[in-house]
Amino acid sequence: MRSKSATVVNARLGYRFENGLRIQFDAYNLLDSKDHQIDYYYVSRLPGEPADGVADRHFHPVEPLALRLTMAGNF
Prior knowledge:
- This protein is mainly beta.
- The protein has no helices and five strands.
- It has strands spanning 11-16, 22-28, 36-44, 54-61, 66-72.
């Protein structure tokens, strides 16, 4: 079994001033993709499931749209 492909678009815009101050704007998952970031296939056991566990696909979803503004400086 293979995972389907996923597309995630991130963007960064920044500027560094002569005095060492830096300002940066980041946008993560700009298109708000609902894909899986990664899929795993393994045996796990939840309460009430058989002692041998259940082999199944587990996934980690792509993080939702996030915006970040960063200001940093060298002193």
